[in-house]
Structure prediction request, 521 residues.
Amino acid sequence: MGLGRMIFNIARQQFTLILRSKWLLSFGFLFGFLAIFISYFGHSGGSGFEGFSRMSASLLNLNLLLIPLIALLVGGLFLSGEKEDRGLMLLLTYPVNSYSVIIGKYVGLLVSLWTVVTFGYGAALLVMYIAAVNVSVGVILKFYIFSILLAAIFLAISMVIGLLSKTRFQALGSSLIVWAFMVLFYEFLIMGLSMIVPKQSVLSLLSTSIFLNPVELIRVWSILSLDGASVFGPSLYDLTVWANGFFGQVLFGLTSILWLIIPIIISGIVLKRRVGNE
Amino acid sequence: MSKWLELHDLTKIYSEYSKVENINFSIEKGEIVALCGGNGAGKSTLIKMITGILKPTSGEIWIDGQLANTISKSYRNQFSYMPDDMLFPRQLTAIEVLTFFASLRNLDKQKAEEVLEIVGLYEQRNQFIKHFSKGMQQRLSFAQALLADTPLIILDEPTNGLDPYWVYRFKEIMKQEREKGKSILFTTHILPLVEEIADKAAFIEGGHLIHFDRVKDLIHQDGREVPLEKVFFEKQIQVTFEN
Prediction:
């Protein structure tokens, strides 16, 4: 059987599995409700919909909080669960390549998350259209694309967590720790470090820190793409000019690809070495 | 008969107290071999090494006269495997599970339906696994191992959770597969089952192969027939005193 067909079969199986689990549906409704709520009520204050407004900031925070959490939980729990139930072990006794297993499962999970995010943004757009709210489709579309990218990156990270965890419970704990570190504590850590390092190194530290955490990467990239560079203040003006330039954009793109590919490669290695060896 | 699967000094060491050491035995074509031993004897570890799930610390597996690469696709096409206590996804139906595994071996839905018929689950093929009893799940796992026409079938504790009728049916199916020329390796601690269907038995204790012989030679001693259970306990005691 061709590699593509094999990946398709595994992805379809994974998609069916996750689609029938109730909690993804619950997340879909929660995400949809919050997206509608923020998009509809977030425009009060009259800062407009074209640029980086209160609505944009709220929508960005929703994405950065909720999407990494759900992606980590979905990937981590499904993979560790399959390990615990011996399904993954059985799969590896079949004449399948371990990377086709990883990619197949990844694609299946990503398509399910993509469905949820599309449902959320689609519902938000529909409600605003019905309510005749003047909203920029471009802004929503940008958020939609960044949301998918964020889900794709955290899903790749979740594959490593799921494969390294021996049980669902361990995967749950590890996912929450990774989420808390990346989403909640990382910025405090960087702020703390910026107090310690020499003043001339602060800009380098801040610039580097953006690329070392996908949450910050998507946060900064989203804000810049929505012409919201002013929110960074005058002290980071040089950084925003550079980041908005060609090299900055290429670096954002390349780093995102690396955040996607490296965890997938690690997952393949872990799958080969650890399944059954525990 | 010729040796088809050979294990040479197969060893897996987790720690000083947890290891399977220097396992040597062979399986011939069209032969049923039972791997017997108590809980934690090392049966499942050995099975996992043979199926390529576990990488042996040392030793070799030969298949049909050639050194096997246990992670290669060609090796995995030589056997099908039924894990111990397999839990299939509860959100899928029996036919969905089997059609998926069939697709990985280029087999169609019809083949999946055929094996469901063999294990008596055809009528329940569209039922979700969450409604299956332990025995039904075990039969589904058995059906999964029967899907492919591989020369070797490896079964880890296949009769766990089966009712007496399905233990009987399992024995019949095993004999039919042997008549087709397939080799079967299964683990169990139910020794009367071994007496009934196995051609050879390998006794494992504390990670070591303590005896490997034809079942009929094991149970016929000094012109009288003794239960295999008695033979096994005697071997166990003998090994304990030797150590």
Chain A has eleven helices and no strands. The interface with chain B takes residues 1, 6, 9, 13, 16-17, 20-21, 82, 85-87, 89-97, 272, 275-277 of chain A (CB under 8 Å).
